[in-house]
Backbone:
């Protein structure tokens, strides 16, 4: 039986696959909008932060339809759906068509794959796997290669290969530093609700990923916030219920060396100021040279942490039964 730890260990190979693929021809674009949800939508978040750092522009849409400005702006829509059947993403594609736009597609198949094949849309078909959230290397790598082909981000193969090497070192065959750190964080967060802080940029994207992975793999509540914004509101929010905050909340701060220097200062001071009000579980520094490698170095620690949380609760990280039940109910209510 495939286990989530095995899938995480395969993340370096996913990134190498993306580095070596030949992307389809794409029309030149000044802007891309990625439409995707959940474990597929994170591909857009990753592409967005890479594009921002290199002077490009990639937005993300995580709902039905598309923003009204897309048709007027002529943005290149990239639909990312692991299954190819995500109803929100299919809705986004329908809206793109009605606006006269030709989307590009990242998928394993499904309805979206059929639509793309019938209409000749630029498509990257990623290897099928058991869970979208466990295919982040495939999905993000494919979205980045499409953005590269459209001229929105620079050549990505070298950065994808470096990210793969960094992850291989961190995982270390199941005994690397990321595994040990994830276990330490799981100990610190045991019995606590995780709150993940990340500075604007790659650490914020990773913080969102940590939250989602703790939800889906760990079956536990988790939340995320972004510096410096949280210093204008959330920093005050630990006063009213001090015993709850101190005993049942654990904050982990994600750090990236290229963050604005004031963000790094704010992270340190924020931790010092709220440390007597709320549990502080730890701090994690990104590893690697390229932005993509640093981002994935943070992602893999969160992925491993989420599995450790599940194991402590004696829960299988793989099933997401309540999501599947919701999909069934949505179909029943529509009938």
Residues:
């Amino acid at each position: 039986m495939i286990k989530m730890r095995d899938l995480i260990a395969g993340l370096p190979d996913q990134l190498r696959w993306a580095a070596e693929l030949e992307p389809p021809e794409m029309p030149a674009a000044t802007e891309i909008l990625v439409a995707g949800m959940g474990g597929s939508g994170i591909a857009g978040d990753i592409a967005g932060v890479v594009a921002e750092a290199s002077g490009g522009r990639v937005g993300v849409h995580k709902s039905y339809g598309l923003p009204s400005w897309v048709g007027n702006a002529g943005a290149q829509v990239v639909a990312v759906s692991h299954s190819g059947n995500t109803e929100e993403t299919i809705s986004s594609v329908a809206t793109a068509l009605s606006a006269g736009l030709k989307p590009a597609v990242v998928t394993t198949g499904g309805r979206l794959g059929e639509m793309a094949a019938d209409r000749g849309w630029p498509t990257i078909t990623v290897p099928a796997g058991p869970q979208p959230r466990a295919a982040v290397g495939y999905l993000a790598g494919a979205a980045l290669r499409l953005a590269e082909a459209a001229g929105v981000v620079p050549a990505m193969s070298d950065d994808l290969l470096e990210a793969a090497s960094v992850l291989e070192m961190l995982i270390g065959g199941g005994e690397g530093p990321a595994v040990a750190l994830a276990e330490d964080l799981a100990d610190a967060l045991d019995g606590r609700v995780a709150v993940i802080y990340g500075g604007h940029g790659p650490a914020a994207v990773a913080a969102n990923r940590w939250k989602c992975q703790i939800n889906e793999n760990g079956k536990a509540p988790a939340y995320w916030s972004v510096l410096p914004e949280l210093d204008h509101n959330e920093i005050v929010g630990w006063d009213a219920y001090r015993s709850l905050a101190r005993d049942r909340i654990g904050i982990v701060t994600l750090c990236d060396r290229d963050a604005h220097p004031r963000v790094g200062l704010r992270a340190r001071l924020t931790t010092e100021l709220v440390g007597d009000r709320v549990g502080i579980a730890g701090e994690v520094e990104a590893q690697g040279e390229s932005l993509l490698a640093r981002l994935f170095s943070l992602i893999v620690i969160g992925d491993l942490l989420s599995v450790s949380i599940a194991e402590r609760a004696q829960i299988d990280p793989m099933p997401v039964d309540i999501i599947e039940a919701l999909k069934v109910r949505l179909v029943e209510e529509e009938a």
In short: The two ends are 36 Å apart (CA to CA).
